[in-house]
Amino acid sequence: MSIQREMERVVLKYVPRPATFIDVGVGFKSEATSISTAAPGVRVIGIEPIEENLNRAKKAGVFDVLLHAAVAATPGELTLYHGATPPSGGVNASAHIKQGRSYSVPALTLDSIAEDYDIAGPAILWMDIEGFELEALKGARNLLSSGVVRAINLEVHDVPKTKEWCSKEDLDSFLTAYGYREVLRYNKHAKPPHWDSIYTKTGV
User: What CATH code is assigned to 3-73+110-201?
Assistant: First the structure.
């Protein structure tokens, strides 16, 4: 089974009929394509700050809404830094690893996106944004407390890459306070140690 099919199978186990899939940091992979194929009728909303990746995502044809922006705790503007080009193509960028070309993009909160685009539950929130996940979640307090988001998929690193990079302990503490619990770790890598974690909302 391919890693994309495995991710699809695992995520949809916890939200078998999602109404909305929120892909934060669309990047150059195909989680949104995989989920939309496995769950026909799901509304797919993508947020991507890098123009090269955004253009690639447009060609996929699976996004109902595709925003050229970053997500943060507060609205405004965010400075990102281009990283190395991954082997599979596309472009990586980080707010914390300050190497390479810098550029600024609009920063939106997930709560404002939910309000502007009438995000309905049950929703899956998918994030892989290079250590900025906690800052993004801080801008989603209404989404998290309301229970609209039933499951969250995060890339988590055992050791933060920089001092600003969010730690797994801080992520877990924040999400626990909103009634989420970690139910699974999968897609594990040894060097450097990192994995995908799925958190689900309790009591809904």
Answer: 3.40.50.150
Average model confidence (pLDDT) across the chain: 84
Q: How far apart are CA 59 and CA 107, in angstroms?
A: 24
Q: What are phi and psi of 17, to 5 degrees?
A: -130, 70
Distance (Å, whole) CA 51 – CA 66 = 11
H helices within the chain, ranges in order?
3-14, 31-38, 51-60, 110-116, 133-138, 141-146, 168-177
Report domain extents, the chain.
Answer: 3-73+110-201
Residues 202/132/192/23 CA torsion (nearest 10 deg): 60
* Cα dihedral 70, 130, 63, 136 in deg (nearest 10): -50
The three-point CA angle 25-13-160 to 5° equals: 40
Separation CA 18–CA 154 (nearest Å)? 17
Segment 43-92, tens digit of pLDDT: 999 998 888 888 888 888 889 999 999 899 999 988 877 764 443 344 44
133 vs 78: CA distance, rounded Å: 14
